[in-house]
Write the structure tokens for this entry.
Amino acid sequence: MLEPLNNSQLRKFKSAAQLLEPMLKVGKAGLSEAFIRSVDTALAQHELVKIKFAEFKEQKKELAPQLAEKTASHLVMRVGNVMVLHRPKSVAEMPGGDKP
């Protein structure tokens, strides 16, 4: 289980997210296993990932927290058709158990 983000962390991530372009788009397949793996990979590499809803715009309020839960990440924000997820690298390294 992830530690909740405090207000200063949320502000920092929201500010950093302003400069990001969406890396991934939720398309016709929705939250498919392949899409979830793509988000997981992006979070492992970048920690902060912006995702745009190209499809399923009506369900974005339900899908955004589901995607955060399935990728063990924090939903930093959801504005319009865009959401931002954050997952610290240390969480991604835990399953392997090999920390540098």
